[in-house]
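For the sake of transparency, this paper describes our internal protein records without simplification. The record that follows is passed on verbatim for readers who wish to inspect the format:
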Amino acid sequence: MLQKKSYFTWLKIFIAIILILGIYFRFINIDRKVYWYDETITSLRIASYTRGEFKDLILNAGTISVEKLQQYQNINPEKNTIKVIGSLARDNPEHLPIYFVILRWWVKLFGNSVTVIRNFSAITSLLIFPCIYWLCRELFGKSLVGWIAISLTAISPILVLYAQEARAYSIFSVAILLSSIALLRSMRINTKRTWQIYIASLIFALYTNLFSVLVAFGHGLYVILIEKFKLTQKFKAYLLASFYGFLGFLPWLILIINHFDGINWVSKDLPLSNLFKRWFINLGFTFFDIQIGSSERLFDVKTLVFDNDALLQLNTIWPYILGLILLLVIYSIYFLLKNAPRQITIFILTLMAVTPISLIIPDLISGGQRSTIPRYSIPAYLGIQLSVAYLLGTKLTDLTNKIKHKFWQIVTVTLISLGIISCGISSQAETWWHKYSSYYDAQVARIINQTSQPLVISNHSARLAVIGYMLRPDVKVLFVEEPEVPKIPEGFTDIFVFRPEWSLISGLETQENAQLELVHDFGELWILTKSKK
C-alpha cells in the first residue's frame, strides 16, 4: 500500500513538472516569432480597419517609413468597438467578433506591442487546463484521467503553437471545452439553470469561431444517440436550448450569408496522395511536430508549389514516429469502445470525428484542402487527447500486471517526451509550419535590413505590413496598386520588390531600363539591378 501511494505521489510530481513546462513553452520567445499575415490582419481588425481602408491609407501616403506604416496599425481613439465589429462584418464576417473585441480592450489597457497581443492568447490558453480537467471529471469521474489530459494538452505541439498566435484559436479551444462541460452537466442534472448555462456557452462559442457550428452539431448527434432517437424530456430541453443558442447567433449568421465571398485557397485541389500525407502529419501534431526534422516549410496552402516530402521518406525516423502515434490513437479508440460507458464513448467520438469528417467529405467530392488545415480541426485534437488520456489513465492505475504496467509507463514517458522535444525546438525557432506563406519572411527581412538605404515596393498592402514588423524602422516602403508602375524616387541604394504581380515586374524593367533579379524564391523578393545592354 505504501509503495502504491509513493507511486501516485511521483506520478503527480511528474505531471506537475509537465504542466510547468507547458506554461513555459507558451510564453518563451513569444515576441521573437514571425508576426505573420493572419496576425497582421488581427492588428488591422482591432485598429478597426478593413483591408480596403488600410490599402487606401498607405496608397495615399506614398513612400513612407516602416515606423509610419506600423502607426497605421495602432488603435485609433476615434474608432470605437462598434467600428471593430463593423470592419469584421464588412470584410471578413466568417471571423467572429468576441476575440477581436476583447483583444482591443486588452491592447488599450496594456499596449499595442506584439508581445502584449500574443500574451492574450497565451494567457487564454491556460484556461484549457482547468477546463479539460473539469470535462474529464464530468466524463470519467476520475481525477487522474483529468491530470493526464492536462499534461497532454500542456505540451501538445498544436495547442502550444496557437497559444503564441494572435488569433482566436486558444479562446476557441476554451469555448469548445466550456460548451461541452455545460452540455454534459445539463444532461446529468437536467435543470432549467444548467440548460441556460449551456445556451450562454453555446452563444459564446458560436461568436468565437465559425467551426463551433460543427461542435454544436456534434453535441446534437450525441444527444440523439444517447436518447436513442426518442423525443425524451432531455432531448426536448436540448432542442429548446439549441434553438435559443442559434437564435442568439442569427444576426451574425445573416451577415455571413450576405457578405461572405468564400475563401479561394481552401478549394484548391490536392492530389489524393497529398491529402493522405497531410492528414497523417496533422494527426501527429496532437503529440509530435514533424517540422523539427527540417528547416524548410512543410507546405504552402495557397500556391501548392512546395511540400516537404523528404520528411516522409522511409529512410528517416519521422514516418515511423507518426505511424506509432497513429497506432496509439487507434488503440485508444478501441479501448474506449471496449471499456468506457456508452455515453462517454459517444461524446468523445462525436467531438473527435464530426469536424474532420465534415471537412473531408467536400474535399473528396468536390476537391479542396479544407481537411488539411490543422487549426480547423482543434475539436478533433481535443477529442483525441481525451481518448488517449482515458487509455493512459486506466493503464497507469492498473498495477495487477507489472510487465504491462511498465510498458504503459514507457509509452506515457515517450509520448510526453515527444511533445516536450517538439515544443522545445519550436520555441527557439523564429518561424514554423503554421506561418504558411510568411514562413520565409524573416529571411527576406534580413536581406533587406543588410542594405543601407533600401526601398521596398509591393502590390500587396497587407504583405508590406507583415514584413514591416521585421524591418528596421527607417526602411522605406511604397505600396503600388496594380497595374500602376511607380517612378522610382532618388536617394535609395537598393530597390527591392516584394511579392509583386508580373505587371509590376515587367513595368519596372521597361521603365527603369533595368532587370529584376530574384533574390529569394520562396520569399518572392526581387531586386532592381544592372541596366540592360
